[in-house]
Amino acid sequence: MGLEKNIFLTGDRGVGKSTIIRKVVEGVSHKQFCGFITFKGEDGIRIRDIVSGSEGFIGKFNDKKVLPYIESFETIGVNALKREGDIVIMDELGYLELEAYEFQLQVIKVLESSIPVLGVLRNEKNIFLEKVGAISEVVEVKLENRDALPEILLRKIKGLLEESI
Q1: Which residues contact 39 (CB under 8 A, 6 or more apart)?
Q2: What is the 3-state secondary structure (H, E, C) of the chain?
Q3: 60, 66 contact by CB (below 8 A)
Q4: CB contact at 8 A, 72 and 97
Q5: 26: closest CA among 133, 158, 165, 127?
Q6: Which terminus has fewer CB within 10 Å in the chain: N or C?
Q7: pLDDT tens string for the chain (165 positions)?
Q8: What domains can be seen in the chain, in order of their start residue?
């Protein structure tokens, strides 16, 4: 299995990237997922290990900016990516982890493994996201394609899982 097994969604904020991932996950619910999700909390951005439920801050709100908080990437994020699973979820990768070097190394290690990855790339440019994009299929989510993407990705993921058996 080649690097085409890494599929990342990108697009404008609020276009439905994480919703598409949830629909795909529901469609292959008999498989074991590992990895992480990120979400906005009251005072910052948090990361949650899908398997253990552990969570922590990866970015704290400060006026109109979000300040990176590296420790949770290097602990919760790394541990989430070291777990066993049929499919790895990485929702989402962006700029906050630019100085989380152990986390970045673990992301690349997973992307170079044989396990399928489904994730979200923040719609921006930085050296880390460029590395991820170079070894992944990156699909832009737009209003015109977002309704069809869950079924398309579900078929692709199911095909990748059958190849790995």
Answers
A1: 45, 46, 48
A2: CCHHHEEEEEECCCCCHHHHHHHHHHHCCCCCEEEEEEEECCCEEEEEECCCCCEEEEEEEECCEEEECHHHHHHHHHHHHHCCCCEEEEEEECCCCCCCHHHHHHHHHHHCCCCCEEEEECCCCCHHHHHHHHCCEEEEECCCCCCCHHHHHHHHHHHHHHHCC
A3: yes
A4: no
A5: 158
A6: C
A7: 455 899 999 999 999 999 999 999 888 877 899 999 999 988 899 999 999 999 999 999 988 889 999 999 999 999 999 999 999 999 999 999 999 999 999 999 999 999 999 999 999 999 999 999 999 999 999 999 999 999 999 999 988 888 765
A8: 3-35+84-163 (3.40.50.300)
Separation CA 147–CA 143 (nearest Å): 8
Burial class (CB in 10 A: 0-12, 13-18, 19+), 148: exposed
Tally the residues of the chain: 165
